[in-house]
Amino acid sequence: MSLDSHIPSGPMAMKWSKHKQDSKLINPKNKRKFTVLVVGSGLAGSSAAATLSELGYKVKCFCFQDSARRAHSIAAQGGINAAKNYQNDGDSVHRLFYDTVKGGDFRARESNVHRLAEVSVNIIDQCVAQGVPFAREYGGMLANRSFGGAQVSRTFYARGQTGQQLLLGAYSALNKEIAAGGVQMYPRTEMLDVVTVDGHAKGIVTRNLVTGKIEAHAGDAVLLCTGDYGNVFYLSTNAMGCNVTATWRAHKKGAFFANPCYTQIHPTCIPVSGDYQSKLTLMSESLRNDGRIWVPKKAADIGKPPAQIAESDRDYILERKYPSFGNLAPRDISSRAAKEACDEGRGVGPGGRGVYLDFAEAIQQFGQKTIAERYGNLFAMYEKITGEDGYKQPMRIYPAVHYTMGGLWVDYNLMSNLPGLHVLGEANFSDHGANRLGASALMQGLADGYFVIPTTIANYLVHQKPGSVTAEHPEFKKAVEDCTAQTKRFLNIKGKRSVDSFHRELGLLIWDKCGMARDKAGLEEALQRIPALREEFWNNVTVPGSGDLTNPELEKAGRVADFMEFGELLCRDALHREESCGGHFRTEHQYPDGEAKRDDENFSYAAAWEYTGDVSKPALNKEQLTFEEVHLAVRSYK
Amino acid sequence: MSQLNLHLKVWRQNAGQPGHFQDIDAPDIPDHASFLEMMDIVNERLIAKGEEPVAFDHDCREGICGMCSMQINGVPHGPEKATTTCQLHMRKFRSGDTIWVEPFRARAFPVLKDLVVDRSAFDRIQQAGGFITVRTGAPQDANALPIGKEVADAAMDAAECIGCGACVAACKNASAMLFVSAKAGQLNLLPQGKPEKDRRTLGMVRQMDKEGFGNCTNQYECEAACPKEISVRWITKLNRDYAIAAVKEAFGNAPKAGGGGD
Predict the structure, then answer these.
(1) Chain B partners within 8 Å of A278 (Cβ)
(2) How many domains does chain B have?
(3) What domain range includes position B96?
(4) Which of B68, B93, B113 is the last residue of a domain?
(5) Confidence band (pLDDT; 50, 70, 90) for A549?
(6) Interface mutation target, options A46, A159, A175, chain B, most CBs of B under 10 Å
(7) Do residue A278 and residue B134 have CB atoms under 8 angstroms apart?
(8) ipTM tops the 0.90 cut
């Protein structure tokens, strides 16, 4: 099937303006007749729900958390990029666009990225007007800082909690519309399925997580703003509830899943300390500005207190392998270097999965006070979690999954190939290619919700008769029955293993075979083992309790069941992509210095997988990527 | 890493029914585990025995989403200062300890199951005025309105609130004043928030009362329990903002032109 991305014609810098001009309008009186279902209340979901309601659409918004304000966007620390050029350092829309396409290792759609860079400036204006307390200078102007992958200072921030402040801004806009009656909010409500009628997405099935009630909601369009699938690895920096269910169910109803193998690993996370571990915590990678990364040269020194390992017996892995960049080598290269050292049996800490991040030299040079001023909150966080004092002994770090670039395929209007189904924010695939730059996730979530979908949704709705489908339609009844049957099935298996034990096993397998470095043999092995594990899950899982009350185990069972299927597609995509690019590293495809080796001739496309009725036999559709503005080049930061 | 042998007294309850403490032994708990990971281990063992696990709220597990709660040995989020339950680690306890684990208790936070409570009252308070009325796309350039660093930093102090409800659980009156004052205070302090200051203050305070939260009697337990160390000075500001707004309302809401009032 050919994919039409509906990219507007004309020069790159004019495409969005032209598209806005060409987009359909719906008159205010008619807007009230349309109902839009928004799933998820993070940056993309809250901003979309609020803005569509302002425009006059009737909106229903759903989240599984107890409040819209708790969606995982809240955990983002660093900042949000915008091409404001307030620093007069040469930034521009074009430069932000260029950095993002290059940072994505030339696997993003140019036109979407350019639009993202264009609306980035409006996002900051909007957030400030809402009362988001960004950092400011004494003169009252907004402050900026620089971030990885850019040579300009374009990142706006609010202490170490930019995500929280932006989400609270969007949440306040959402509250304004809830109070005005335009948005009906459904917290503690999880989406279980998409309902299609005549090939169009016309509703969803949800489970009320308090009463257990399974309900159908009909609408004229469905917006999935449901974040990423990083929890397929079990351990990640995601919140515990993050899941793939909404996008995976949509996929099984016909929406294409694009580039699932593009997953991003962050190098400076706190390592796993035991098999009871439930999640991983990220520390800002700014730590690498002053910390030196090393492991013992000899495996025999493992277990010794670090202070007793002589300088000559230490291997400063990044400084040795990448002398020009040293400890500031790019995220993916640093992550893989740590993995290699640990694979060689030289990893430190519990389980041998960690490397030292040593501040002794920096403290000697600048004094502890200066280091504390720079990173005090991170040292405190590290101490709280590990019980160790990073000033007195080296920290231990290890890479962890923290973002996924893949997602449902969407066209320029953010609509999937399934008409009516729109996908926003991290849940779609379009803007970050194979690798996302720091401070760009928040930007994309808000760009899609505040500025893109409010314009583009009309291009779909204008052809729809509002309210033409209701929840009385047989397709809804059937979908509710299917979801009810699945709940019953979980409760009736009464096997021997907990949901978490399956999730942990799946995650370890995928992390091992499809994590930081991937190869053909490992991926083929994973593709053998996942279906077997899935079968065991469906025969041997135990879900206590009942279906008609709060039942966290039942919620987890549904999510893990979908991860069991999705994990296979993730590995299949990684196996098919015979190149390395961004977050996808195939050990067979690299330059001698360890840089990812792309194959532009054969793989310059987005891989959009189609469900065929058999999870193990998806069909591949390709959206060829063309680069008009940014010339394909080896991604190099040297 | 050492192991702890603990004894838990955990609150078990279904919505609308009476609850009770259940005695649960928790041997061999790694001291590196977080409190919620300890609860995960306990639940895995309950499941293995064919019993129903303990329901509790949690999500980000990095101290920012505000979803986790729990009254631990009578203190919201447990004994460590400025720390949410998810960031509390078992090394803060000793082997042999008995730990009491209860839900946040307040009339306005009804128990849904075990340790899970309904905090939607906080959302409704926010909906009663916790926003600035501005349409998407309408604003001027962000730097057109200079805001001094001191004001921006103070607003940020209030904005750090994660809406967990520990302030309510810590208060003998189950007052929500710390939460409401931080939320209203952030916006009332900023120039963008001035035009709606009176409306916002009256709306949020009245909704708070309607939800069944108690009155503030200046015990400051809320500040002590707050994982983000929100200062009770925000309550002082809210009291002042409320008095001004109420007086203006009583006199027909007349002197609008004078600005926000502080």
Answers:
(1) 34, 36-37, 40, 61
(2) 2
(3) 3-113
(4) B113
(5) confident
(6) A175
(7) no
(8) yes
